[in-house]
Write a structure and sequence with these properties.
heterodimer; A: mainly alpha; 63% helix; 0% strand; B: mainly alpha; elongated
Chain lengths: 134, 57
């Protein structure tokens, strides 16, 4: 059954919060939880690939939560929006990246954009759980 | 991946896939919108690159 054949369902208040949390933890997991398998797998594949390519291109994954450098804070927040893959990559030793790599800036862009796109996916999961979308 | 063009294509395809899936429900509409978005990404990047060409590095 394609996603378009699944009409907007009545909102299920109990599933809203878990859907959003799952969506943050793993791109597409919120949609999979809500039964939107096609959408969930596409998000998982595309956003996952963006993030993995970014890490492969020597992206920095350093966590910064201070206010002295607002842009660094925003960058860290964007990457953290990826959820578990971000923390897993840090735990596996990809935290520092390689600033001398020719692909360093591309890698940073890929990982940050992956996180930002996941924020949109989380919001889509929220709308889907609320019954605003099919 | 050391090719600027390949990096551009990979980024465009992946981001366009997400946008098309978010904004369209029918598979045909998704594909059409996704291809349009990829084209827009690539063309605008090439255009901006050429516009910046006269400026010193």
């Amino acid at each position: 059954m394609s996603d378009s054949q699944v009409r907007a369902r009545p909102a299920d208040a109990a599933r809203v919060l878990p859907a959003c949390i799952f969506a943050w933890l793993l791109p597409g997991a919120g949609h999979l939880y809500l039964g939107r398998r096609g959408k969930g797998l596409i998000f998982l594949g595309a956003i996952g690939a963006l993030f993995l390519l970014g890490v492969a291109m020597d992206s920095r994954l350093q966590l910064y939560l201070g206010f002295e450098d607002p842009l660094a804070l925003l960058f860290s927040l964007a990457q953290m929006a990826m959820g578990a893959p971000y923390f897993a990559a840090r735990a596996l030793g990809f935290e520092a990246g390689k600033v001398t790599s020719v692909t360093y800036e591309y890698g940073n862009t890929f990982t940050a954009v992956a996180g930002l796109l996941n924020i949109l996916v989380i919001l889509d999961a929220l709308d889907t759980a609320r019954g605003y979308k099919g | 991946m050391r090719s600027h063009l390949l990096t551009l294509l990979a980024f465009s395809v992946l981001v366009s896939t997400v946008f098309a899936t978010l904004l369209r429900d029918e598979p045909k509409e998704r594909l059409r919108f996704g291809l349009y978005a990829v084209g827009a990404f690539v063309l605008s990047t090439l255009l901006l690159g050429w516009l910046m060409n006269p400026f010193p590095s």
